[in-house]
Amino acid sequence: MLVSYNWLKDFLNMDGVDPYALAEKLTRSGVEIASTVHPEDGLSKLVVGHILTCEKIEGTHLNKTTVDVGEDEARQIVCGAPNVAAGQDVIVALPGAHLPGGIKIKKGKLRGIESNGMICGLQELGFSDSVVPPKYADGIWVFHDPDLKPGDSVFAALGMDDYVLDFDITPNRADTSSMEGAAYEVGALIDQKPKIEDVVLKEDGADWTGDFTAVADEKIAPKYYLRKLTGVKIAESPLWLQVRLWNAGIRPINNVVDATNYVMLLTGQPMHAYDAKLFDKTKKIEVRLAKEGEKLQLLNEKEIDLDPQDIVITDGEQAVGLAGVMGGLNSEVTEETTDVILEAAVFDPALTRKAALRHDNRTDASALFEKGINWDNTQKALDICALILRANAGATVLAGEIKASDRDKEAVVITTTASRTNKILGTDLSMDEIVKILGKLNFPVAVNGDEYTVTVPNRRWDIFIDSDIFEEIGRIYGYDNIKSTHPATGELIGGYAADEVKVRHLRQLLEGQGLSETINYSLTSEELATTFVKKALAPVKVNWPLNSARTTMRQNLICGLLDTVAYNFARKQTELQLFENGRVYDMEGGDYHEHEHLAAAYVGLAGESNWQHKDEVVDFYYVKGQLEDVFEMIGVKDVEYRAEAIKGMHPTRTAGIYVNDEYIGLIGQISPVLTMTDKNFAGKEIYVYELNLDALLPLMAKGVKSKPAPKYPAVQRDLSILVDEDVTNAQVESCIKENAGKYLVSVEVIDVYQGAHLAASFKKSLAYRLTFLNEAETLTDVVVTKAIDNVQAALEEKLEANIR
User: Fewer CB within 10 Å: C terminus or N terminus of the chain?
Assistant: First the structure.
């Protein structure tokens, strides 16, 4: 909103208050001032001139005038404006005058005729086309003020000596969208109470309400007031009123329309004036929702198809206005209008906003209604408008007014304490200081010890809770006056919880393996949410899903990784190694649960192609090896892989992961049924694993710790044995480790054979490489041979192995 500094003087004593300093103070208090403009800046030598004579210059559109500018002799000025005429009081730029855009006026000649100055239109003084009255839009400005004399400066007369503050109002501070609201705000900052006068209207005509009916539904129009005036004479508004309108960015139209706009600027209450003769037939005004198929031509001549959710004003039969937005062309006040009906109302803000957006017709009135207005000003606005029309349009105010709806709004009462105020703000204000600040805001306060109760005026409909009161106290006290302190908490600042440290370590390990981290939606379809899990639990669904693919909270991370794989495949990226750490959700036992998971996906080659080595394609064992490296690095031992059938996974290339018989996750290939039928995956083999970190984190030990390379060499021995086919590798390794002694550091399988070359078909041949190392001294053959002998003996005894 554009706020006039001179207009503020009607409410406050502004002596010594610098406009630019005030703008800075307002911004610091939370009401940002986008700009402060002094229209007079950069202009000079602009005076009132009285045209004595005006002669047409033959063969041109120009006129030769003689103009009295308050000097000893009249000046001859050539003017091309179509509305110039003798007897007019006009704006004259004298030679040497400076106009906007760096233009300087000089003496000169036009068509050989000397011209000593320039007769100006408002646009030439920097006025926007949008605020110039239509009558003067294509010509010069003409004064109609008898108090102006030739030679007087035009700046004060045109309001150019004013300072205009642009209040960049946020939706929650719509109370400052009026001069009265701005005055309360400025008054709080300069410690003055605004002079807001009560309005007393004396009616001077016959009662008109007896044969007129007004109907309004309180749900869509909580307040709806009407007043009628007769004997209206349509004309220009007085200059003072036009100045206040155009300095606020509103174009003056005529004395009736200008009065309604002036009242809206003053009080924040939108007004509308109807030509009363429109209702002569029906004697009725009805406020209702539009009917299907209804149309309305607005004042801007735009015809709209009304929606059943539009609030309309009707004469009981046809629509005559779109409530809260714009009146209809059929009810427009014209030069022939003699009787008007004034309307002041409160309309449903949501419906008003939707109607303005629906019909692409945002107006100042709709902006006020949608953000909220002061319900206490409805009566006041109606009476002020009637007073202005009586003074400026010779109107007679008929007795009586109609209130079709008149719902009261209860005041908001908030009780809180001084101690809580100081705790929230970080201040040390006494109760007297708090009461004084609230007094600056004109908020009534009752004190009871440490407790105080605030009755919030209806003009501040943005205040509901005690935090709103604290904000008001803080900004008036001054945010700059609040000391900067560190927040006081009971927790230590910095560091991570133990589980968070473990999770971050896991992520770093996967990044070290070359995997890229991704983040996916927590929402998926119900089908995918319960796929890729050993046991599906009751799903968690959202009430208002974005679409059919985002209806359910995920129970696995693999579904999101597959989305990422498909996204990359669509962009020709087919060699992928990805992981995600996130939460999954379920309703186990009827209770809501969240679980921390970690998942990875592999597709394509294990590494980049290179002429120096043969490409390795990712398979089950490659992914299992990657996972085993992770387990080794975090110190998780005794991991078992058990072949299992899991929904969405390959029937024979999938295993459950167990530690001490506890299920902690799965590993395997995505089912070919999915990858072959879904064009997004192009038939590729996709391998994944997913771990339940809630179960895994407690098992994590310190893991691998780096140490210097050994000074002494290791000794390796190969061992080949023949065992029954039902003997597992785990049994053999366990037996070797138990009997090889303290110098055994690793056991590796180097060959497995089972076939026709063996004497018995139920036997299999296993070959192992045993590595021994003594970090303190060199191992001798005697020590190693003794260890091998012990291993062979144990294998023969416990597993009935044949040493080959």
Answer: C
